[in-house]
Amino acid sequence: MQSSRCIAPKRTPKQPALLVHFATLPEPRRAAARITHPLLTIVGIVLVGMLCGAEGWDEIETIAEGKRDWLSRWLDLRASVPSADTLQRVFRLLRPQAFGACLSTWMRSLVDDLKDRVVAIDGKTLRGLGTHSDRTLHPVHVWASEARVLLGMTGTTGAPGELDATRAMLEWLDVRGAILTTDANGCCRENMGLMVEKGAQWLCSLKGNRGAMHERVAHFFQDIPVANEPDGVPRSASAREAHGRLEVRHIAVASAAAAGVTEEQLPGVRSVIRVTRVREVHGELTREDQFYVSNLEAPPERFGEIILAHWGVENGLHWVLDAQLREDDCSVSAVQGAENLAAMRRAALVLLRRDGSLKKGVKIKSKRAACDNAYLAHLLLGENA
């Protein structure tokens, strides 16, 4: 999802949101007179395939053939169901920027307000592409953690490209009032400055890739005990037990100026944060310190909530794509087609995860959509039809 804006026309009743937000998607095929299947028909069929758990073009075609009568209620299938080759060819021709922009307007319409809500920025490499191409695809996601909605996505060739990809999306995404979070790869002056310009707040992880800044903050916190002391440094502690181990998280917050981090280094910076994780596993204690910087001023408890919410992109998006939708098993050789298909898979995941009518996991919901047209209509239209 990138720089081209896609302005959605007014929605009509009973019309799937996909048809509304993709109505202005540019037609990538040249000879209009020879076009047999409308572009919206192809896009709609691919979305249905993703909702039903398809892992490739042949499965998408097979699902569409089985649902042809039902699909013809809202898609133009007068020329039959497009073949797998046609679906693949059109998705390979679609410009990811234009496709992603339309998808982004759709996803953004699902979130009422981003003010003070965590929006995580993180990347994930598509493994299935690597065995069929000499290029890699590493989509960078802008994920509204609490709403569980993908606000933006753009592809790059690997983790080093995340900074440029993030800047490209921030240039056109509306993130006013949001709390943008990034891992250590995203912690740089240019990106933090752009976030401030866009009216957003930010928090990013601080690791060794920031060199002197990381050393300065780590040295500053050396003199601050983990346990609460009457030294004026706000702290909090919380404990949780999972997978047979006990973890206590201690959070300490101080001003960035006290730690020697300046606005010249990171625009708007106000706070430095240390998260100390003390774990007990089989009677042995381990300690790990993680450092963060932010332009927020907040109590330790709030910073703890924001940091945990950032991992929603891992647990709510990346893990589900791998473990339940088996994204890495989907082999698509063309990079551009793979990026567009990956974007549609993420849209399907958002619809499946946000549905509360079926109290099951994404994989079971997908199987239900494959065999129950009423449930599929509910996902697409928000109705029982």
Write the layout of secondary structure elements.
Elements (H helix, E strand, L loop, with lengths): L16 H5 L17 H13 L5 H10 L1 H4 L12 H10 L2 H13 L9 E6 L3 H4 L7 E7 L4 E8 L5 H9 L8 E4 L6 H9 L3 E6 L5 H11 L12 E8 L2 E11 L15 E11 L2 E11 L5 H11 L1 H12 L11 H20 L7 H10 L1 H9 L4
Parallel strand pairs: 1-4, 4-5
Antiparallel strand pairs: 1-2, 2-3, 5-9, 6-7, 7-8, 8-9
Helix pairs in contact: 2-3, 2-13, 3-5, 5-13, 6-13, 8-9, 14-15
Give a short summary of the structure.
This protein has 385 residues and is of the alpha+beta class. Helices cover 39% and strands 19% of the residues.
What is the helix/strand order?
HHHHHHEHEEHEHEHEEEEHHHHH
CATH class of the largest domain: Alpha Beta
Integer tally of domains = 2
Low-confidence region ranges: 8-13, 130-134
CATH homologous superfamily caption of the largest domain: Transposase Inhibitor Protein From Tn5, Chain A, domain 1
Outline type:
elongated
CATH fold naming of the largest domain: Transposase Inhibitor Protein From Tn5, Chain A, domain 1
How many alpha or pi helices? 15
Largest sheet: 9 strands, mixed
CATH structural architecture of the largest domain: Alpha-Beta Complex
> Cα-atom Rg, whole angstroms?
23 Å
Span between termini: 31 Å
The strand line-up of the biggest sheet is 3-2-1-4-5-9-8-7-6
